[in-house]
Automatic annotation (TrEMBL), chain A:
Source organism superkingdom: Bacteria
Gene3D superfamilies in the cross-refs: P-loop containing nucleotide triphosphate hydrolases
PROSITE patterns: ABC_TRANSPORTER_1, ABC_TRANSPORTER_2
Name of the molecule in the record: Phosphonates utilization ATP-binding protein PhnK
Keywords: ATP-binding, Nucleotide-binding, Plasmid
From TrEMBL, chain B:
InterPro entries (alphabetical): PhnJ (IPR010306)
Protein name: Alpha-D-ribose 1-methylphosphonate 5-phosphate C-P lyase
Any GO molecular function: 4 iron, 4 sulfur cluster binding
Coiled-coil residues: none
Functional summary from the UniProt entry: Catalyzes the breakage of the C-P bond in alpha-D-ribose 1-methylphosphonate 5-phosphate (PRPn) forming alpha-D-ribose.
Gene: phnJ_2
Catalytic activity: alpha-D-ribose 1-methylphosphonate 5-phosphate + AH2 + S-adenosyl-L-methionine = alpha-D-ribose 1,2-cyclic phosphate 5-phosphate + methane + 5'-deoxyadenosine + L-methionine + A + H(+)
EC number(s) per entry: 4.7.1.1
Classification lineage: Bacteria, Pseudomonadati, Pseudomonadota, Alphaproteobacteria, Rhodobacterales
Amino acid sequence: MANPVIRVENLSLRHGARPCAGNCPAMEATTQSAVCPVCGAVWALRDVSFEVWPGEIFGIVGESGAGKTSLIDMLDFRAEPTSGAIYYNGWREGKQPLHDASAEERRALRNSDLGIVYQNPRRALMMGMSAGGNVIERMLAAGERHIGRMRSRAHGHLDHMELGDRMDVETMTLSAGMRQRVQIARALANRPQVLLLDEPTTGLDLSVQARTLDLIRKVQRELGLTVILVTHDWGVLRLLARRAIVLKAGRVVESGMVTQLMEDPQAPYTQLLVSSAL
Amino acid sequence: MTERFTTGAWDAPWPFAYLDEFMKASVRLAVLRAVCIPGYQVPYVSEEVPIARGYGSGGLQVTLSLIGPDDRYKIIDEGDDETVNAVNLRRMVGLVTGAVATTDPERADLIQTRHKVPEVPLREDQIVILQVAFPDALRFFERSEAVARQMHAERDYSKLWLRLYESVIAHGEIMIGGRYPVMIEGRYVLDPTHVPRWDLPKLDHSPALFIFCAGREKRIYAIPPDTTVEPLGFEDHPFRVEDQTGRSCRLCGSTESFLAPALGPDGEMTWTCSDSAWCRKCRGETLEDMTWQTL
């Protein structure tokens, strides 16, 4: 049996420098809030565990402030876990916590194994550069130095995103939906193992949203990518993901198949989320 | 003031070379550090000098810290000895040190320059000091100094190649005129200021010491003698110097020096040597020395 690509074990992230003794034991009593009632520290995530299997699209749902982006930040090395660990089977065979990697190894992992798509394309893209340049930058970071080879590869990725003819256009001049697709092409530039999608279609109008989601699904199937999808939108989740966890105040309140979560939500919070979405 | 200078003993109303000893020592220390880590930008305390920031205050501080009373110095601006900036800096250095200035790069011990490296081959007993406006090649992409330092530490230089790529896409070849990024000994990428691409091969394994100093940005970095200096490039679009085929200097006829555009007598486009000392030498003129009294 294959191993999970990503295994998250008891992952916690605390903000604030006033932890009580024993990692805020008073938190166990409150499930409504991410703030420790005794010391006031904010637990963006608390004891989150899940596994992501090869080739699947795994969803992370929750309203804003639930800890979704904190989770992505840790997967992308932009935050260090307070406790717990992430294991990735492409690094030390998944036997050592991912955050033991050195700065250089982290950069190599981010370049070769990880692709990330942010909600705000300005976070990833250089607006003054061409669309193709933004894709090629990741290849340059991985050490490629041949313009002809890089351009043909970048053209392939942009063509997947139906932007093959916009390769040398300045990114600033592209529409929001196009920028988002350039971002996806950029994330795919080095054929990553894992694609992180942080609210990839939020803020786009519905028809563009549907088209972008279609493209993501197509690419995911063709390349056999493992995808972690963070969203607050049950529609997006139902279209793409099969399994998901529901986060609330930094804790997992429910997990399972997406269809099951939507048709028969068990936790009151999930029921609330589903009923407010439909 | 003139009388005081000529008494022989140091009797001017300022310390030798204007800067106080502590300041000179701190600049020299920063220079030593910069030489130890080729291409690394060493922060230093940039003191006030009697010229405005951005007019070569960094280069002037290094020159004043390194010069001795017996040294010959040369100061050029865009290759020319006679531009306003060069003339005034030369006057000032002469006045505060009593050292002899020269226009001949071969006789100079110290050469302070802006935007040009002398055309003649340099020797190992020479120091070239370049005035720098922006010390960091990553400044084009990263506004935060802290992030740029992290990028240097991790050798995260892909965006510099991206700048070259965008130039290739726009013009068909790399057409960057100044601040062309160069890699030092395969480690740090350094901003060689606005010297033309023409000058970059001269930096590679040069016997002379190159010191770069940005007074406003308070950074010193260096290329020590015999150091590998590799301009960035691509496998299919390698680094190339400016194409000067069919051009020659209007004054001396030279085709081997970097040519700058100039309007001819009838308003037509002509080319002249950027390095005025080279041009005068080609025309058989003698390159004179100047003492501070004659400056």
